[in-house]
Amino acid sequence: MDLAWEALLDAEGKQSRKINGEIRRYTSMTRIRRRLSLMPVVCSIKESLRKKFAKAANDFEQKLRSISSQISSMVGSLEVGPQSAFTSNIRLIYVNIRASKIK
């Protein structure tokens, strides 16, 4: 009787481990499937952020080049005062920058 009982307990333990293994394998596969299904979303978000950053960087570079070009084309005295040519040119550049932001 004891041998039969031990054999029954052993078989039950094996069956329980088998069931638990199947459950672990299933949940693991489900997690992997979920991760794989989210990958396109994550990749598209990263791509969108990359494009937005690239556009902002290109816009900044374009404005910087414009400002640099305007500064290099300035003529007149470099005296800084309320009526100097330098001050007037800087004001014009500032107005142009503000106007480009409004567009």
Note down, in words, how this protein is organized.
The protein has helices at 2-72, 85-102. It has 103 residues and is an all-alpha fold. It has a domain at 1-54. It is rod-shaped. The chain starts with a helix and ends with a helix.
Provide a concise account of the structure shown.
With 103 residues, the chain is an all-alpha fold. The protein has two helices and no strands.
Secondary-structure blueprint:
Elements: H1 2-72, H2 85-102
Helix pairs in contact: 1-2
**Mean pLDDT rating:** 78
Chain oligomer state: single chain
Shape: rod-shaped
Order of helices and strands: HH
Structural class assignment: mainly alpha
Total of helices: 2
- How far apart the termini lie comes to 92 Å
Strand content: under 5%
Question: Approximately how much helix is present in the residues?
Answer: over 70%
Poorly predicted runs of 5 or more residues: none
Q: Give Rg in angstroms.
A: 36 Å
Largest beta-sheet details: none
* Number of beta-strand segments: 0
Keywords:
86% helix, 103 residues, mainly alpha
